[in-house]
User: Fold these one by one.
Assistant:
Number 1:
Amino acid sequence: MNASAPQEPGPAILHLWHPVAILQDLRPGETKRTQLLDREIAVGSGDAGASVAYRRWLGDLGVGYGLVPVAPLPSPPT
């Protein structure tokens, strides 16, 4: 399971496992809601390039689904 966790300290990352499959698998009331505005996410084991697209996509929804926080989230810069 260590392979799924980040090995270096850095920007806060939320791991999102196969977002489409998660969205299809969830039932009403079973969703995990996590605000994603101004937060980075990584897809699978962590793909920084894809994270921007997913952050925007989930940011438009206002919530994230099936997200597991793996690092403290800092306050957005002012």
Note: Residues 6-52, 62-76 have pLDDT under 50 and may be disordered.
Number 2:
Amino acid sequence: MFTRVRPLLGLLSLILLAAVLTSTSQQAHAQTSWHVRYFNNTTMSGDPVVSRYEDKVFYDWGEGSPAPGVDVDNFSARWEGNIYLDKSTVWRFVTTSDDGIRVFINNSPIIQAWYDTQAHTTTTDIYLAAGNYPVRVEYYDAGGSAVAQFSWAPATTINAWRGEYFNNLTLSNQPVLVRDDANIDFDWGTASPAPGTVSTDDFSVRWTRTVQFAPGTYRFTATTDDGVRLWVNNQLVINNWVNQTVTTKTADLSLSGAVPIKMEYYDAKDNAVAKLSWTAVTSPSTPTTPIPTTAVNWDAAYFNNYSLDGSPAMTRIDPQIHFTWGSSSPQPNVVAADNFSVRWSKTVNFPAGTYTFRTTVEGGARVWVNGQLIIDQWQPQFRHLVPERARTLLALGRASEAEKELDDYVETALPGSYSLSLQLHVCYKDSCDNRRGRCGWR
């Protein structure tokens, strides 16, 4: 009898062990692995020829195939998984690909480099709260070498500038060189930034980085020969895009926390100089809590009509509402250059107080705070800017009445609440040639 039981117990143990291993494997896939599907076409259409789990999206296949059964050229892949971000901060997402690649977080595109190209690197910095996020990476190879790489890290731990160098004056097409520069402190004279790769004249550079600032006022100084543009916190603060000998420009800004910085530069002829620095001008005597205008990104939905109707042509994450599109599209080949509309929404935590909300648009704008319409200018504004302001009292407990102080103010006292997480909705429509869309509060 015992001889019969032992084989049964052994078989039962194997079944239980297999079940445990399967469960553990599935949990690991859900937590750390990517479910990838490979297609023998460049459009991810039809049935995949290979479907499996992989522990990374970081490959350089060269002239080879990703897996048996997948063609060496003209294939595509889609990876889907979840990533865990262990802290609330600005995160830098990086792709390197040959050919096209695009990345979605929460189904919103954050990187779109969907075109034939040699190996190139694309980065984007986005503030995200700590937690789990669904991520999708899509890739195609059109021939030749095949590279697909995706990574992320807190931007505040990246202490170098990401420099993209172009052999033209307009930062167009793909960079001929991408590298990390410790500082922007260059005097190349009549030489090249990278002999044999970057031209000695008629080149341009874009540097990007996120820097952690203690609360205070800072003076930014840019010294260049020739042109320079500087964005701090996604705002253009220095714009001297002209041919010139060595010239210095400054801008004073109040900053706090993780701040994205972007500097664009071009050299036309002769000497080439590009330098950027900053120094603290003042600092607050007591700690302050800044209003988190960049702490939470905007969920943006773009429509190819001016009434926000139907399904959006594009959804994405916008760090701020501060755009000057001119006569261009917010996203070429996706959103129309004219007669489009946008809806931005997010939740912001406000300390109790009175805030003035401002919009500057060419086109129409509406703003809701906590479900209440506070700015309503949903009409064309041709060839001039119309700033609209609304002062809103946000208070714990009972809200007091607000007095009308200026003719162009709309005074609103919101009901008292012990939750200061307010839902903000901003809608915009374009109706003319030169467009601006901005929203802020203080």
Note: The chain is about 5% helix and 55% strand.
Number 3:
Amino acid sequence: MFTDEEAKVYDRQIRLWGVNAQQKIRATDVFLVCLDGLASEVVKNLVLAGINSITILDDQPVSQFDMLNNIFSQNQIGMNRAEACQKAVNQLNPMVKVNIMKDQTLSTLLSDEMEAKNFLKSFNVVILVNNGLDMASKLNEFCHQLCIPFFFTCSWGYLSMTFIDIGKQYNGIDFVPIGDAFEKKTISLKNSRRRRQGENISKREMIKIENLKSLFLSILTIFRYHKKMGEFPNVLTESDQQQIENQLKTIEQEILDELNQQNDDDNDGDDKQQQQQQQRWTSTTTTTMNYNWTKKIYGQFSFISSIVGGFLSQEVIHHIVELRKELFKNRGYDIMARPVKNYTHPVNVSIYLDINYIKNLDIQTNMLETEGWLRLIDENLKWKRSEYGGIEDIRVHVDEVFRPDITIINSADSENIIRSTTHSDLILWFSGDIFWMPALSMKTICEIDLTEWPFDQQTCLFQNSEWDIIDSSCEYMVHDTNEGGQFFPEVVFSINIHRKTSIYRYVVYFPIISVLFLNLMALFLDVRNPLRFHLSILCFITLLLIALFLGNKLGFGSLGIPKVIKYIGQMIILTTFTLLWFAFSLNFIRSTFEIPAFVMRSIEPLQHYLISKDIESVQLTNNDLENGQTNQTSTKSRSNISQSNLIIVQIVDKILFVLFFILIIALHN
């Protein structure tokens, strides 16, 4: 259904052609090439009608000639026409998406056939305005092969033309590509065929036929001029006008000679009356239109552009609406009927679940919230693309199609998966595939094991900010309800996801590594330096804060203790031990406890490896003892005792440094 805003904006259109038709128009994507005065009228009509998007390709700047239409302003002269048009189109209808291609030309787009076709596949309608016949033929050929409706229109002064190719077949009519039509240099009219077959037609019909022939010759002449000169006739001065008119008359005579030669070859052996009739056709062509037609083909007039642009837009909209009428009205589609053509056949519900976004995995509540796309198949809603102008998909409302009962058993909110899309649109493909848009929001229960956090992988039953899907599987099961032999089927989708760890390297691992280095640095400093006590306290507080942060994030009741949490806890214990050692070592150095002689003799070999050679010359000062009660007139024996204690502390300190380093590595593994 439409939103309140859409219903308000498109109220007039809905009253004119109905809700269903407007929904189809809202799903149409248009590709338009060359945004001049005529094209601006086409754009305005389509945008106001309420299409989904329009992509405009134009590499030309706004010029003074573009001021004839009201979509451009004087201050936009010199800007790219597509870019300048974007703001005006958004003001007309902000609900229509406008895409511009200002750095590419049609010739470069069509240079690679494969890339061009892949690009054109994304559009429902292609419109080319005021371009050469060669480019129009090439673009029409690609659209013809892809079954995409192609519209080609030109306007030169009082003269204009529109060519429409809406597919290989449409209501039994075979459409001829524009290249083939102009290559024959003839027009195919029902009345013209009747005339050649000798049937009686009215004088008014005869005049109409001759006028159309005259217009066709003028159009051929202008296209031949464009092919030779690379542009359509454009007058700047009177001398230019005279020169252009002479060139047009010369080209016109060349085409007449070609037509006469072709008709002579086709009418060899015909009677004199047929030859006279053909001669009258040729001569009449030069005089049916005003003799001064070459003076009336310069520039673009607003009223001509409005008429032609309105006609072209109406043809586009009419073609879009036809398919919905066939599917939901002419076929008598019933949303309550099972989507099978034979009632004896079972309903095959093919479910494809595409997970396109993992919104959140709540570790504390074990809830996985995802958004995905759901696809079903309804064989009653199939159509042949060739019969509907190459239309591959349309947008329908969820209440317009059959909906099977699909429920997520382990859903966290116990809501039917289809009911959540009551106000969303579906995309219906020609093959009967139904594509749910926008994505469904699903909440499911998922058991989470955080042992390997943050490098964990989780398997949940049932692109993105934190999780990457690395594997998925599907399992079909049938359960017995034990109630009269009744069974119900169950389809279990399993997805295996792993966490993106980039952010955690910066907020968890790098701080932990820095803290460990600071701890090692504290043990490496001189035992009498009070800075190492301060460093150890800083490390302890940092590790404690990281542990509290992770506990709050992961939840204290989560399944499995993450290894990183265990490691942080072990490092906190080691840091606590170093703090105790630092406090003990400072007090031990100041103490008067005398180390036994045999202990000093036993550790004497370690002094050569762990203590510097000048240790014996170290003298304790008041600064070393830091406000201790040491007497400044200590005796020599007292000094020797303190020096022995210092040696013991330094040896133990170096041993602890090595042991701490080994534990850091061992506990990490």
Note: The longest strand covers residues 467-480.
Number 4:
Amino acid sequence: MPDAILQDRPRGFRAARLVLTLIALAAALVAALWWYIGRAGSTPLERWIGRQLVAAIEQHISPRVVFSDLDYLAPLTIVIDDLALLNGEERILAVHRATLSLAEIPKEGRPIQIREIDLDRPILRFVADEAGRMSGWSGFARTHGPITSAASKPAPDADSPRLSDLLVLRQASIRKGRILYDAGEGHPAMILPGIEL
């Protein structure tokens, strides 16, 4: 009987080694796929989506559009973290997270079609300067097209999408929004919390 156990052991040992090797290879494959696909804002499609969104918005407003992270969740969702509109270095609008639901799967060369927008914890900031004007909000909307002087932003490419090409909105929502008004030195800032839409 002991001889039979010793003969089965190498076969069982080989089978166990094979199973462990297959598990290790599967784990390495999953880790590699997660590293490539799971990195937010890192795929060429995500970078293209970010450029398209920023170009379309900046054609119509003077502030710069910035964000820390953009993640495309196939097939029809884009999540943008720390979205902001900057006038110089001043944030006049900050959004913790913007979730965009798309009308169709994004493809390079075609406008991204946004069906729904959900803004989580947006803050609109109105700060008065010494003259009492709202800092950052005068000249907010471009009325004569994009600025093309050398000292400012370059004109968008001919293939930049128009805002009307992107928006096929059916719904917009705001959760936990706030409006901040700062009248200047000597006056406490007023905050209107609880903006929901």
Note: Strands lie at 64-66, 69-73, 77-87, 90-102, 114-128, 134-135, 167-175, 177-182, 190-195.
